[in-house]
């Protein structure tokens, strides 16, 4: 079976690529210049893959986005250090971003699927009153909530029209009109 690395090196100078990158799956420890070359290649390809998958990964981080970030970090680092083949690293990274793209596209179109993979938003303060059941469900203590309110420039729950624990875990705050 022909691998991606074999296809890349088929028409070119495999000796040069072996020297620069240390091969697809190195048989010997990588030299520093090979680690540097792999890091540059994996960074550029990783950036292209993430850009192709849209920019959600860095904007509104939900558990779906965070998992992708962890997996990509692990995959890409193994490709850089030579603990995994560089072609397998690129293919696995592209597949992961593709699955993420598909899931977020389905979640956009289906509220039920979005709720399943992203979670729920819950009110934690409504009309100045703590919503203790939702706080308990979301594992938000009174001290945590008060800290979040202060970070939003609010002195206490009595000044809040609505505070929501959002699907990404953040707390959004709408102040009462005074």
If you had to describe this structure to a student in words, what would you say it looks like?
- With 178 residues, the protein is an alpha+beta fold.
- It folds into 2 domains: 4-115, no CATH class; 120-175, bsu07140 like domains (CRO Repressor).
- Helix content is 58%, strand content 10%.
- Helix 3 runs antiparallel to helix 4 (63-81) and helix 3 (32-52) packs parallel to helix 5.
Structural class determined from secondary elements: alpha+beta
Number of helices: 8
What is the tally of beta strands?
4
Number of domains: 2
Compute the CA-based radius of gyration: 23 Å
Query: How much beta, percentage-wise?
Result: 5-15%
Largest sheet strand order: 2-1-3-4
Q: Helicity range of the residues? A: 55-70%
Element order: H for helix, E for strand: HHHHHHEEHHEE
Largest sheet: 4 strands, antiparallel
Low-confidence stretches: none
Mean of all residue-level pLDDT scores: 83
First-last Cα distance: 71 Å
What general form does the structure show?
Answer: elongated
Defining key terms:
single chain; 178 residues; alpha+beta; CRO Repressor; 4-stranded antiparallel β-sheet; 10% strand
Describe the secondary structure blueprint for this structure.
Elements: H1 4-10, H2 14-21, H3 32-52, H4 63-81, H5 86-109, H6 111-118, E1 122-126, E2 129-130, H7 132-137, H8 142-151, E3 160-165, E4 171-175
Antiparallel strand pairs: 1-2, 1-3, 3-4
Helix pairs in contact: 3-4, 3-5, 4-5, 5-6
